[in-house]
Design brief:
Helix content: 10-25%
Radius of gyration: 52 Å
Distance between the termini: 192 Å
Number of strands: 24
Shape: rod-shaped
Order of helices and strands: HEEEEEEEEEEEEEEEEEEEEHEEHEEH
Structural class: alpha/beta
Oligomer: single chain
Length: 428
């Protein structure tokens, strides 16, 4: 078998010290050569081997280029240690992971951090993506950024445009910028904004203040602590809706069927302003109370000298008018002599309203209803009925009319008796 020596092997032989005695070239395959490899003859096995070269002296100086690219040898990595303190050793410990060292040069690609990043000084950035938690002790200043989970800040945060998951700060959060500020999310349940003060005190609370230019509108939504010193219009352990501007406060429900509802003493609705403007009392047994002697003002039903008002069976408040302008089907009221006699025989009563010492007097509505004096609609014209058809109150104006019919009947009877008396006297 014929063996061929490589050129490198021939060079190694030629460079070796001279061999005294009988010279011989021993054929042997040459191994693959690598960087820093020294070709050596292994006598015991009669083979060539690639042995590692001797290590360089330590430490290396930072003027040396330590690592060259395996494709382009002109790309060299070097270290510069001039920034270290004299007689100081700094140690780099490499984790058991593939690492890409980020760059601070803005022109290079953006850096992505997937773990917890903590800055104990300040963090200033114009762009950046934090896919996990960013914890900052100090000031956080930026013009834009994306935080896909939690942004935790201890200190003052001044941000431009920030897309974030959860933002947690133990300092002050200041957002400068004009436009539509949006808190948006999509999930089953409530998406909420909470302003909370966990400290009680005579002056403690929390509020949201919406303010325009100086001298303009000021709108405040407030909540106070359990020990807050109440000062109208702000209560203790309650809430207040305030407008301090000269334009006052507007409450609007702008949908065509949207009502405004008022609740008190729990979740029971007490009042409601209907979409057509009607004010409806929605609690059974509730009453409208005005203190300080103030009257109830009802537009369009008054007159220059005042007029009576009635409440209908449908809970409507109406002017009690006697003018023919508001009436139809006007006809004389004809009552039989028997009905007049029953009315004359009816005795007025005195009474106290339940739970009150009123000492009132007059006719009982049920007694007037029992007279059997009915109008064209099958009811007594002398009384008002409630929604269930039961006697509720007397119609005093009808009683006056009935009493006038009694007087007219008596006048006719007296006139008849007077005529008979005069006839008898003429016979004598």
């Amino acid at each position: 078998m014929r063996r061929i020596l490589s050129f490198a092997a021939i060079l190694m032989v030629l460079a070796s010290p001279p061999i005294y005695g009988q010279a011989a070239i021993v054929p042997s395959p040459i191994p693959s050569l690598t960087n820093n490899c020294i070709l050596k003859w292994q006598t015991a096995t009669s083979t060539w081997i690639c042995a590692a070269g001797s290590a360089a002296s330590q430490p290396l100086t930072d003027e040396l280029g330590l690592i060259a690219d395996n494709v382009d040898s002109s790309k060299i990595l070097a270290f510069q240690l001039s920034g270290l303190t004299t007689a100081t050793t700094r140690t780099w410990t490499i984790a058991d992971a593939n690492i890409t060292i980020p760059s601070t040069i803005a022109s290079l690609a953006a850096n992505t951090f997937t773990g917890l990043q903590t800055a104990n000084g300040g963090l200033a950035a114009t762009t950046g993506l934090f896919s996990s938690t960013l914890g900052v002790t100090g000031a956080l200043t930026g013009t834009s950024g994306a935080f896909s989970t939690t942004l935790g800040v201890t200190g003052t945060s001044t941000l431009g445009t920030v897309n974030a998951g959860a933002v947690t700060t133990s300092g002050l959060l200041t957002v400068n910028g004009f436009g539509a500020h949006l808190f948006s999310g999509s999930a089953t349940g409530w998406n909420s904004l909470t302003i909370r003060n966990t400290t009680t005190g005579t002056g403690s609370g929390a509020y949201i203040d919406v303010v325009t230019d100086t001298g303009g509108g000021s709108f405040t939504l407030m909540a106070t602590s359990t020990t807050y010193t109440a000062s109208p219009p702000i209560p203790q352990a309650g809430g207040a809706l305030r407008s301090a501007g000269p334009g006052g406060l507007s409450i609007s429900s702008e949908h065509a069927s949207g009502a405004i509802r008022f609740y008190a003493g729990g979740t029971t609705q007490r009042w409601r302003i209907e979409a057509n403007g009607d004010l409806q009392m929605t609690t059974t047994g509730a009453s409208l109370r005005l203190d300080s002697g103030n009257p109830i003002f009802v537009p369009s039903i008054g007159s220059d000298t005042g007029t009576a008002v009635i409440v209908s069976a449908g809970n409507g408040m109406y002017k009690l008018s006697s003018s023919a302008r508001y009436k139809e089907h006007i006809a004389p009221w004809v009552v039989s002599p028997d009905a007049l006699a029953r009315f004359v025989a009816l005795s007025p009563q005195v009474w106290d309203y339940k739970g009150k010492q009123t000492g009132a007097a007059g006719f009982i509505s049920e007694d007037l209803d029992a007279l059997g004096l009915l109008n064209a609609y099958g009811r007594s014209p002398l009384i008002n009925y409630d929604a269930d058809g039961l006697p509720e109150s007397n119609r005093d104006y009808a009683l006056i009319g009935l009493q006038h019919l009694v007087l007219q009947d008596h006048d006719r009877r007296l006139a008849t008796l007077d005529a008979r008396l005069k006839a008898l006297e003429a016979i004598r």
